[in-house]
Write a structure and sequence with these properties.
The complex is a heterodimer of chains A (275) and B (310). Chain A has eleven helices and two strands; from the N terminus they run H-H-H-H-H-E-E-H-H-H-H-H-H. Chain A has 275 residues and is mostly helical. In chain B, the strands form two sheets. Chain B has a six-stranded mixed beta sheet, with helices on both faces. In chain B, strands 2-1-4-5 form a four-stranded antiparallel beta sheet, covered by helices on one side. In chain B, a hairpin with a 2-residue loop joins strand 9 and strand 10. The chains are: A mainly alpha (275), B alpha/beta (310).
Chain lengths: 275, 310
Amino acid sequence: MRSDITFGQYVEGDSLIHRLDPRVKILISLVFIVVIFLARSLTAFVLLTAAAVVFVLMTKIPPRLILKAMKPLMFIIVFTAVINIFFMPGDHLIFEFHFIRIYREGIVNACLIVLRIMLLIVATSVFLTYTTTPLALTDALEQLLNPLKKLRVPVHEFSMMMTIALRFIPTLIDETRKIINAQTARGADFTTGSLIQRGRALIPILIPLFISAFRRADELATAMECRCYTGGEGRTRMNSLKSEPKDWAFFCLILALGAGVVLLNRFFPLLNVTI
Amino acid sequence: MNAVELDHVSFTYSRNMPGAVPALDDVSLSVKSGGITGLIGHTGSGKSTLVQLLNGLLKPDSGTVLLDGHDIWAEPKKIREIRFKAGLVMQYPEYQLFAETVAEDIAFGPKNMGIGGEELDARVKEAARFAGIGEELLGKSPFDLSGGQKRRAALAGVIAMNPKILILDEPAAGLDPAGRRDILGGVKRFSRESGTTVIIVSHSMEDMAMYCDDVIVMARAKILMHRPTAEVFSEAEQLASVGLDVPLVTRVAAALGELGVDIGRDVYTVDYAVGKILEHIGAAPVNFENVKDAAGKNGTGAAGKAGAEH
């Protein structure tokens, strides 16, 4: 029953990108995002789009899923496009109606900015959400942030909290479903009535859910102490992350992509985007 | 008159997912009014799905579920009324308690039915009595009760709706022997006194043998058999083939049979076994009450001892 909840978006796979060191993947995504923002010229955008398509093909993730990742951001995409089309001044007037003036520059800019947002989504989903398990991500993040420990930031504790939170999301969803069923069987009604009535109808669900969450937290803490957990000091890992040459080769590829973008911006400027 | 009837009912979870396996596969079934029916089956055999179909928490993909002869999905908008008629006590119901006092929690169901005032009070008190919740507990917070008491308070919450049939999913799971006896005894008393049809899902063969009039055995999304309790437990091999067991005392009787002491294959309660064994060795007729006490305290030990003496 639990399988119908898509939690996180990890898609099982064995591609080169799936197997990259998650720490390097986080760095790659950061650099790739910077590169996307560096792109100004249409030629640079063509290069990046081609690269993104290649990455998607490499992961063997169905393109349908990538499109699905864009859905929640559809509003922002449309909103940005509209703002650019209607409010971007330029030299080539195409359409005029009372106070509405649409310029060629506005349309070009809108297209390129929409493309930029889509590239950002593809970059993060291809390198992070779709190809890296949430647990690998938190582990990698912990190690990347390790230097902050010198500044007394409790990195390990935060990452343990993240890991536990991720681990218990499916459990709590399951539990919520059970409690909803139980209260429905006693005639609770969550779908009719005014907003206040519906809010009140949630009480019989929220109270048992909170109580069971606290109970689980308590039990887990006891279980961890029984296994001598005392925090991150001196703790080793079962699967320690190792970065191999191929990870850094991929990283260099992204750097090269960045260099390409800068060169194309400089030497082949075409329909440059502003902002 | 049948309290519940299933007519060629099938159900599959997340039907649209590739590789979905039916949880119930073309199941037909009828349960007579008034008795206690046990529902046993291996984990994943479809028991919990079946009970959730009975009160409309799940809707069958095909086939009809009849309650008192009426299709429960005839008017989907009135499905709430069906839930009041077919009271379901889910697994570990103590995790659904939420109100400030036990009495308020028991009143949740009847209040949702629109009952108030004196009738509500009367129902709460009566339900508490059946479930074995003393009046002194009614004013307490449900979270201050012991595990067994919480379980019984949750049971009272469903009994208070005065359902036509009462369905219990693993009511005794995780309770100690005294807790099991309290809750199942309460259910039996409630069924006998109010004439309510009861369906109990359980893994415990001993509980089935002790409290149920007939037993439904489920295996692989289908019903394997539905017969009076004694007959079901005489099919030890067939039960074993679907990963189920017979009560311990039935196995003792079978072992005695192999040793040449035939006391029959339909032995499934300790009382009955003791009587049969004593009859077999020709002992004087015993005062059954005394034997019962010994059996109750010592479980199968009494039967074992009687066998050894022979």
